[in-house]
Write a structure and sequence with these properties.
2 copies of one chain form a homodimer. The first copy, chain A, is an alpha+beta fold. Chain A has 3 domains: 33-424, Glycosyltransferase (Alpha/alpha barrel), CATH 1.50.10.20; 426-524, Immunoglobulin-like (Sandwich), CATH 2.60.40; 530-636, no CATH class. Helices cover 32% and strands 17% of the residues of chain A. In chain A, the strands form 3 sheets. In chain A, strands 3, 14, 15, 16, 17, 18, 19, 20, 21, 22 and 23 form an 11-stranded antiparallel β-sheet that branches. Chain A has a 7-stranded antiparallel β-sheet with strand order 2-6-7-8-13-10-11. Chain A has a 5-stranded mixed β-sheet with strand order 1-4-5-9-12, with helices on one face. At the A-B interface, helix 10 of A face helix 10 of B. Chains A, B: This is Glycoside hydrolase family 127 protein.
Amino acid sequence: MTMTSTRPTPVAPVAPSRGALRPLGLDEVQIVGGFWGERQVVNAQATIAHIGDRLESEGWLPNFDRAAAGTLPEGRRGREFADSEIYKYLEAMAWEIGRSDDAALERRFREVVARVGAAQEADGYLNTNFGRPGQQPRWSDLEWGHELYCLGHLFQAAVARVRTRPDADDGLVGIARRAADLVCREFGEGAREAICGHAEVEVGLAELGRALGEPRYLAQARLFVDRHGHGLLHDIEWGRSYFQDDVPVRDAEVLRGHAVRANYLSAGAADVAVESDDAELLDALARQWRTTVARRTYLTGGQGSHHQDEAFGADWELPPDRAYSETCAGVGSIMFSWRMLLHSADVRYADLIERTLFNVIATSPSDDGRAFYYANTLHQRVPGTPVDPDSTSPRAGSALRAPWFEVSCCPPNVARTLASLGAYLATADADGIQLHQYAPSRVATTLDDGREIALRVETDYPAAGLVRVVVEDSPDEAWTLSLRVPAWAEGASIEVAGAQSQPVEPGVARVHRAFRRGDVVELRLPLAPRLTEPDARIDAVRGCVAVERGPEVFALESVDLEALGAADVSTVVAVGEPAERDGAVVLPVRALAIESDDWPYDAHADAARGEIAEVRVVPYRAWARRGPSTMRVWIPRG
Amino acid sequence: MTMTSTRPTPVAPVAPSRGALRPLGLDEVQIVGGFWGERQVVNAQATIAHIGDRLESEGWLPNFDRAAAGTLPEGRRGREFADSEIYKYLEAMAWEIGRSDDAALERRFREVVARVGAAQEADGYLNTNFGRPGQQPRWSDLEWGHELYCLGHLFQAAVARVRTRPDADDGLVGIARRAADLVCREFGEGAREAICGHAEVEVGLAELGRALGEPRYLAQARLFVDRHGHGLLHDIEWGRSYFQDDVPVRDAEVLRGHAVRANYLSAGAADVAVESDDAELLDALARQWRTTVARRTYLTGGQGSHHQDEAFGADWELPPDRAYSETCAGVGSIMFSWRMLLHSADVRYADLIERTLFNVIATSPSDDGRAFYYANTLHQRVPGTPVDPDSTSPRAGSALRAPWFEVSCCPPNVARTLASLGAYLATADADGIQLHQYAPSRVATTLDDGREIALRVETDYPAAGLVRVVVEDSPDEAWTLSLRVPAWAEGASIEVAGAQSQPVEPGVARVHRAFRRGDVVELRLPLAPRLTEPDARIDAVRGCVAVERGPEVFALESVDLEALGAADVSTVVAVGEPAERDGAVVLPVRALAIESDDWPYDAHADAARGEIAEVRVVPYRAWARRGPSTMRVWIPRG
């Protein structure tokens, strides 16, 4: 395992030492407004503080104070993995400080780090739930204890800090280093041959190793990855596939089991495969990604078909009404896909990231940034009841966004993702810059050969399909600007520096040119709403269509059915193509007039039908923002 | 609350003091062979002994020995509700002894009763999991402790015993009486105002009250029923609907929450409503039954759409692949329906009982009676792996029948149902006899006015549609023989004593006649296989058809796809009507040729199709009896 690059690592969550594409960090890419810019503002101004308040009031952060005061286990609050939420909160703050340099946030960050650090034991061990008199011994419940999982999140927080504030003296990096050293001692070669029931330490250790130039951490991450699939964890009701301990990573055909665990593990496996140049493992991960996307992923990009075990189902088992599609699985899927994109430059990975960002990540938080979806159903059959903003909800029990959950992994996961989102927009290679996600932004970097490039991206995407790239600085020599053309963008075109517009195919549009300052490249993505049909094998949505527009999946909500005189979405069928009317997307539908309420298996095929009416459909992420409603993404074709 | 009948109570699980129909007991109805007779033999010769062996080897029955020896809680085995399985086992043995008078079984029964009785405390309390030093206090966990639930099953066992062997000196009735008296003291008016998190004590107390002529038990059952829906139990992740503590029984519109709990509670509520002549409550139960059948019941009669909470879903939420359809919910549904049938004489209740018997109860046990389905999926996507006959399975984790479960409610529930099945075949009223379920059998009773009637039923049903009723004894005066004509039996006909055949409509065919010995009534039920379409609101099976034949639902199994050269059931579509060929039911199908394995939301509607071939479909209950396979009940229409 060798570090081949001598460049400073980017201010980004992932910095492989090799790969087809080089990530650009928050110092090189800034989102300056638009769809994601607005969400970054809400994240900074409301969500991060909301999380901090809840971590205090729920007692999860005070657990660290009690640990330092020696008053645990009495009064410990929260689930066994509650520590991890503090680490994700730290990670979100670190990225946000790096992005906006907020002094108050910096003070809060240091305060929390100090409280965390005070709970660390002399040998580096850090967990408020294990190891003290009256608690279970350390590492005694690897299936469910989440000790290594929590540390993985600590490591990612430390990575965020060292990359955004490499010279800070707050101590977080030292805390992480001491804990990582302990993990290597306890779980290294010849020591305890074990893994954690929830993957995360792999990806955390790998990146900490990269960030600190510490190959031991990468080696330990590799050990953990390689140990999966050998039955080191006890069997459970749902099988060892739940924690991906059923089949070795390099032998698996598809993601399975708990969808967050599966994606976190895959992300960590990608990291160790890249660092050890393990082509076989990378091929296995690419194969698993492809099959998972083809057979086990919702139209929204969401993953996870089971409520019970928060897990992937079998191939083609994608029920819209019992979709779990956990927000955190969306975060994990982006983590996995991003690493594969950097490795391969295959824009299919960026396509899925975009789909997941607009339809899972953007769906979760409320407009005010203080309530969240944990699970993201594609079909809501019963309107929710408003959620008390001071309450704590079961994790997937609400049809409306909830302020906090007994298992509250999702809010800080959204927060850290939004705070670092700039790092997922663009990459560089030896020959130029690649734009993967479109947002009003500035992109500036120095290529490996020293050439400096600066771009400004202007767009109202996804409201409008025009992406305008203005060259602000360019070397005299030709270089290549690559623009992702999403898979759905049939009919896209590109116009370079005022020349005639040229059609471009989905994939990558490459402009190789000796750019001059002020040159403009305009990519036009067609945004007419379109009907989408599912593969015939996805039984749960047979005979249905969905509406999409650009990267956005749309949904039919009961509040938009007034034109039809229909009360809910369960008896409406689509009878035509969607269209745009005054900026809204509409779909012609009819209400089925079904009178029968008897044994329901007697062919009601002759049900009379109502008048055709055009009703509004809204972006899926917008659903339930106008109050309780019923909703469906997949609409029966009439 | 008054007992209005002076007749001896029938040898049957349910003996209301009033109602439209009077149940006939095992002394009045005997199944003498055929479909159910064979299953009763396997139940008697294998299943009951298998259950007894497992209750010993799992340590659940020895828990009572440990309780008597004062060695609890150390070494207690099984879940908190394990006691209940011993009581259902006792109930199954009691009915079987009543049916077949097996001397060895009688010895075993007495042995088990003695061991149970030795664990009863002086004040009547009986539970191996609570109340001792080192255990939780009695009644301290009403949400999950199942103490009253267990006692409800004890009471049903005692009912079975007192009705089959009213003069036995084994002591079970005394054990139950002491426990019931304790329950009345602890939970009566003015005492602890509480309910159990798992309904069952209601139906158990009500019937024990009937069996022993003890109105206090009926009054206590009524209290428990009336207390539901007032939030006496703590809220939980899935809501109080899980234990039907969200809405009072008389106010509810539909069954909801845990499907077994919901049906057991409804059965108990029907009992107390009948005994207190509570027309409002009976109307509410009838309404809930109708809506549940119309909107929340599988084609098989199975109930319960969620794995996670073993619960009903929302209206129309009936996924075939994640169907839970717990075997015990089928038993509970029969308990509820049977009580409503006795009350109302509405044969729709008997229709559902028949459907549930043939497609849930008969599906669960293996041919050898030593393995069972706990959950009954309608779509198996991945073939199961053979289950070790000495293993203990998670409750719903297997695609193949399993010998025992960590939660093993279903095997003894099937056993007690099969052993008492004769009691569900026929009823009487002032004017005659009603036949509800068709099996080779003898039916003999004395009407209220003293007239004696005896019948012999000859049939190969459901293999053949001819039901031949031979009058073996009849008074001279006219009386009415009523024969249920199932809802699916369009085109049925009846022939009375050799007269010309007459068409009869689904519902009830009534023959009022001065029968003579030797008179024969022949009911012909049309058994041509038929295609069934679902209500348009059942999203999960849109565009699909199922094959039915008589009361049997059919399924397509992968092992029958050889003719098609297709490996599994996921890409097969139905392209015609089912037919019978050489005694088998066949369906014309085609295999879809789908090559794509990429993003699955790009309209694969043009997929080429294979040749049409007739493939065999088998009764759903027969699935996975030829080894591991994939299976589906609902087949896409091509």
